[in-house]
Write a structure and sequence with these properties.
With 98 residues, the chain is mainly α. It is built from four helices and two strands; from the N terminus they run αβαβαα. The protein is 47% helix and 8% strand.
């Protein structure tokens, strides 16, 4: 199945800085309108931390809340971020929302 067949519009690809991704890889994606966002330098756990935050956010908030629109979603996520950072025993996720 191709991305075009799914009907989804992909705008970003988050990837690490591995040498397995040549410059041509980024060029092909840019031609398709996909912006490549590279992870931070020397941050091997970044992906795992974000996956954990997203899983927690979905299970504790989004699966139990009816979201009415973009403004409500933004407000709800900011509230959850504050709650998560204040109550998480492992410390803040260091992933503030824009």
């Amino acid at each position: 199945m191709d991305i075009q067949d799914s009907g989804a519009r992909i705008t970003y690809l988050v990837r690490d800085r591995d040498v397995r991704y040549p410059a041509l890889f980024d060029t092909v994606l840019a031609d398709q309108g996909v912006e490549v966002v590279k992870t931070g330098v020397r941050m091997p756990r970044m992906n795992a931390l974000m996956e954990r935050w997203i899983r927690s956010c979905r299970a504790e908030l989004l699966d139990r809340t009816l979201i009415w629109g973009q403004t409500h979603l933004t407000h709800t996520l900011r509230e959850y971020e504050q709650f998560h950072n204040d109550t998480d025993p492992t410390g803040p996720s260091r992933a503030p929302l824009p």
